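Posting this for the archive.
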Amino acid sequence: MLMYPHINPVAIQIGPLAVHWYGITYLVAFTLFMGLGVLRLRHEPYASIVGPGA
């Protein structure tokens, strides 16, 4: 039988507000992919579509 560690699903809890690990994962992924999207739009082939100063 496999033994699994018991990991608390709540990362941070302040009063009644609980932040779960999967919520932090969604936030990190969203931030990462938005940043990568901005970098790709600044690339030369797309710069004319976005406009100057982007």
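The chain has two helices and two strands. Helices lie at 21-41, 44-50.
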